[in-house]
Amino acid sequence: MSTYIGAIDQGTTSTRFIVFDRAGRIVSVAQKEHEQIFPQPGWVEHDAGEIWQRTQEVIEAAMKQKGLRPGDLAAVGITNQRETTVLWDRTTGQPVHNALVWQDTRVSSYVAELERKNGPDRLRAKTGLPLATYFSGLKIRWVLDNVPGLRKRAEAGEILFGNIDAYLLWKLTGGPRGGIHLTDCTNASRTQLMNLQTLDWDDELIEVIGVPRQILPKIAASSEVYGNATLDSLKGVPVAGILGDQQAALVGQTCFRSGEAKNTYGTGCFLLMNTGEKPVQSKFGLLTTVAYRLGKEPASYALEGSIAITGALVQWVRDNFGLIGKSSDIETLARTVKDNGGVYFVPAFSGLYAPYWKSSARGVIAGLTRYTNKGHLARAVLEATAFQTREVVEAMEKDSGIALDTLRTDGGMVEDELLMQFQADIIERPVVRPVVRETTALGAAYAAGLAVGYYKNLEDLRSQWAIDRTWQPHMESQQREAMYSSWKKAVTRSFDWLDSAA
I want to staple 375 with a disulfide (CB 3.0 to 4.6 A). Which of 193, 291, 337, 386 is the partner? Predict the structure, then answer.
């Protein structure tokens, strides 16, 4: 049997290829960033061709790093930034427009148009999702409406759509020469075109959103053999797992039981709780989504709290303000002061996601005085992530009826010990960091490994999960609630900054 398992982790800012051993330890890794394109305020794009180029480069680099051959890998999984929308030419494989990234808000007029009839929850019963600029369906419609002649070509079967996972799978398995056009049910559940119950494209949703069925990929399980890679560095290796990045982290954290939850601290923050084999419709501003489907087993579902801007706020302070030289400096700067000095930073750069879903909100910094210095601002930047997470935790407990006992964490920001301690303090729960931090890539590797028998079962995976560090809450109750109350006040100041979502 092959020794290792591989995972392509295609994220919002970079692409990685990681090779794991059977115990989930990293054997080899390569990473490359890609350009963030901002054509105008609220618009965020990626060059899908560049992402494919970076994907090939990191696969080749990681394999060469340890002198690995395709035969050394039992299978490869894919995990990806979700909702980011690619349309490409079936014959040439060339994207017909830059990818519209999940943070992009240009479809706000479509959202407003659809909300006028039956409100923002018009599609929630079937999709588990509110009407929002976040999801793929309306992004597809925008590209079809704004690239001359494209809708006609799409209806003629000349154009294909995919979130990044489907685009990469198609490229990996041959592209114009027999590439497999397929997505898994976790990514399909983020389009607002899939019915959560049937796990298939829904005619009514397709009509309401306004996209032709011909362009949509086949929907498959998250763990099954889809086909073999044709890329030289992976030639013949089965591609056998696909999970949207947040669902992949849930699997990587082995949250297979109902009530188990994880929070990923990346560009945004995403808290997912496994709710078992029945979707739970949210009444408190969360999303209902597919958690995973392993082979022919029934799908498992999750409640999700999506926060748009967390790690991206640290990058913004670094790149736009020059306040720090590198992202990790934010903790050092924040430690120069003993508290936030009364400053609160609500990073509603592209509106507010869970639990508010207010696309007309914009970012505010509240509580500034002559006393405020850059250390206070740095602390407010970190605390914003923890406050937003508490709002989602509260909504999740109300929706699920389950009280979280601990919060499992992963993602780049979990290295920030000041943030992790404040997170434990503000939610009054222990916060746990696992030994293996790369849980997103690991989840995709697990899904692929299960499909080819590299791993036997879920218990096989559970036995690998181990705790690196736990932070216990220490903050006095009165201080905790006073700070949270001030945060809530600051959030209300961000509401309806735009007269209408634009």
Answer: 337
**Chain segment 332-383, per-residue pLDDT in tens:** 999 999 999 999 999 998 888 888 888 889 999 999 999 999 999 999 999 9
Q: Write the burial class of residue 475 (CB in 10 Å: 0-12 exposed, 13-18 middle, 19+ buried).
A: middle
Tell me how far apart the alpha carbons of residues 281 and 392 are, in angstroms, rounded to a whole number: 15
Could you read off the pLDDT of 245-273 as tens digits, one per residue?
A: 999 999 999 999 888 889 989 888 889 99
In this predicted structure, what is the pLDDT of residue 388? 95
What length does the chain have?
502
Question: Angle at the Cα of 246 (from 182 to 287), degrees rounded to 5?
Answer: 95
SS3 (DSSP) at 203: helix
Share of the chain residues as helix, strand and coil, in percent rounded to the nearest 5 = 35, 25, 40
Sign of CA dihedral 83, 89, 95, 100: negative
**SS3 of residue 149 by DSSP:** coil
- In the predicted structure, residue 175 carries a pLDDT above the cut 60: yes
User: How far is residue 86's CA from residue 369's CA, in Å, rounded to a whole number?
Assistant: 45
Distance CA 357, CA 370 (A): 33
**Amino acid residing at 433:** R
Please give the model's pTM, rounded to 2 decimal places. 0.87
Give the per-residue pLDDT at 2: 78
CA distances for 313 relative to 129, 350, 368, angstroms: 25, 12, 18
Q: How remote is the C-alpha of 231 from its chain's centroid?
A: 26
